[in-house]
Design goal:
Helix content: 55-70%
Pfam families: TetR_C_8, TetR_N
Low-confidence stretches: none
Keywords: DNA-binding
Protein name: HTH tetR-type domain-containing protein
Organism: Paenibacillus odorifer
Number of helices: 9
Radius of gyration: 21 Å
Number of domains: 2
Largest sheet: none
Distance between the termini: 82 Å
Length: 202
């Protein structure tokens, strides 16, 4: 039993080292230019060790991709395990954990975004919306104006992904807590009016 646990830890450590090396190389160069030899040299393993764990660099990328998106869904739900419902004013822990998860995995996020060129934005949106559809449901106030649920869900998730992508564009210069607060403020804000910027003809 102890031997099995030791081997499991060693396997996890090896796989993580290969993934970390791959992500670093993608960010330094490009996915297409990175070879398996590059990965094994960076991780200080041989090619045989790589092939023991992954069939190809495509398989390695897929595992990084799948684990990242799985973590997104878990981040949304973990703060509320065992609860049947929460008030709308109590969503901050979930939003904060979402941003903290991305902050803790920003290298993977940036690497995946670089490789998939726009696809990650769509997949992030789909993963968040899937979680909101399958794992929870937003209930609107009884006296609120009627709104189509799917449209409202798309609006909420688009706002969330848009804020996340902006955060990545500015190289995560704000804290996860600040971003969570900003998102909640934006979603709950009511626009007063729109002012048009006058341009001189001269």
């Amino acid at each position: 039993m102890i031997q099995e646990e030791h081997e499991d830890r060693r396997t996890r450590r090896t796989r993580q080292a290969l993934k970390s090396a791959f992500v670093e190389l993608i960010l330094e160069n490009s996915y297409d230019s990175v070879t398996i030899l590059d990965v094994t040299n960076r991780a200080d393993y041989n090619r045989g060790t790589f092939y023991k764990h992954f069939e190809s660099k495509e398989a390695l990328l897929k595992e990084i991709h799948d684990e990242f998106l799985q973590g997104i869904g878990e981040a949304l739900l973990d703060p509320y395990e065992g609860l049947e419902r929460i008030e709308a004013t109590e969503v901050f822990p979930s939003i904060l954990q979402l941003f903290e998860y991305i902050e803790g995995h920003k290298a993977e996020f940036l690497a995946l975004s670089a490789v998939e060129r726009g696809k990650m934005t769509v997949e992030l949106f789909d993963r968040l919306r899937e979680s909101m559809r399958e794992d929870m449901r937003i209930e609107i106030e009884a006296d609120a104006a009627p709104v189509d649920y799917e449209i409202m869900l798309s609006y909420q998730m688009s706002a969330t992904v848009g804020v996340i992508m902006h955060w990545a564009e500015v190289n995560f210069k704000y804290s996860a807590s600040y971003m969570a607060e900003q998102l909640i403020t934006l979603v709950n804000s009511k626009i007063d009016h729109i002012a048009f910027m006058k341009k001189s003809n001269g």
